[in-house]
Amino acid sequence: MNRLLEAELIYGRLLPVAEPHLVARYNKALRGFGLPETKLSEFDIDMSGFSPQVAAELQDFDYLDPGRVNRRFIIMTPAQENLPVVHTSFSNTAGLMHEFYSANARAIHAVTLRDVLYGEIEDSVAEVRTLEDLLSINEVRFNVMSAEDLLGKAGELRKLSDRLLTEQHAWREDDLLSRMVDLAKETGDIRENVLVPDKVIFRHDAFWANHFGGVYVFVDDKITTVICSPDAPGFRRSRPWQVSYISIEDKAQIFEFLARTGRIELPRASWVEASGLLALRAEMAILGMAADLEPATDFARIDPVWTQTFLHRHAAALAREGTYPFLQEMIRAIMRAGTLRIADVAPERRISLVRAQPTHPDQWLTNRLIAQLNPQDFISRFVFDKQGFYAAYESFPEPFREYVVSRLSGAYLLNKAAFRKRLYGIGDDQHA
Description:
Blueprint: H1 2-6, E1 15-17, H2 20-32, E2 43-45, H3 52-58, E3 72-75, H4 93-103, H5 105-112, E4 117-122, H6 131-135, E5 139-146, H7 150-166, H8 174-187, E6 201-203, E7 207-209, E8 215-219, E9 224-228, E10 243-247, H9 251-260, E11 264-265, H10 269-275, H11 277-293, H12 304-313, H13 315-321, H14 323-337, E12 355-356, H15 363-373, H16 378-384, H17 386-393, H18 398-411, H19 416-424
């Protein structure tokens, strides 16, 4: 993974924590969770406060995600809102954190000037043992604390202020007035600085969870759809009257569901040609075959002449695997007719011809599912399914790893927003 670290393709764009007072605040939060303090003088954190360096030191990459449910967070500064979430068991952790930051911006700014916020994103289950446990999560509550108890002191000062305003002789109580002065020295004027977060309960809708090999949960008006391994405990047994189950191996049924619910764009020349997405998938299919069949290839020297030679040399293997010739044929057909009659396409191949509908709220989750089902497209997998990408990367031969890192650094990292907009139609203001 060193090459990924150096290229900032893993744990990239994190916030350095180096000032002694900030390290001390982070340690107070760790103590609040009952965890050992870090002995590091410098480390990086993501939006939720997770630090890969602290995780390595503690030998526990789930130190903020115990049981892989009820995720913990540590907020040192409002600037964390603009960071990624690099380690999580639920795909919507980043979205929930964004909502919390946005809804409580004033309180977060005021508290983190002198304290650290920490706590848990609590839901209705303490442990995920079956699919029913995942399906029972409808909303989450941010249970928020502060190391110096600024939140508790602000709440106490608010109550004392209310007594002063409502009880006729409260102003004569010296102990009350003295306590208010002492509290105000720590909290400031709570009439001006809102210290207690206003909104702490948020909806928990469509998501991916890394339990049971990966579970996709899509929520529609009258039915919830679960896509995962049929070996997952509770598959087709939890709430069968309101939950539809699809095997992650059934590409045809997955496509039918995504198309019926308006979550995908069917292949049309208007976006296929402008995006170049299907051409990219065809190219990725060749590269993936080359990594399998000729792992010692110097991928940096690949050019059209090499590609043609490879196609001739491995024509039989490419035909058996089928992805490259299929995509090439489909691209030509779309360019000729402007669209495709999808009923004429083999059901198991249809998912390789689509992308998520850019205007649908579930576009990131849908693109993640599509990327997982087109594993040779390592670029799309890195963009939407980083856990899957990292697992696949470990199996790549060394020359291919070097090429993959170089390709991602040049094709994606240079201008991620423009890249996502061109290939997937995703706007700059939308988050993973």
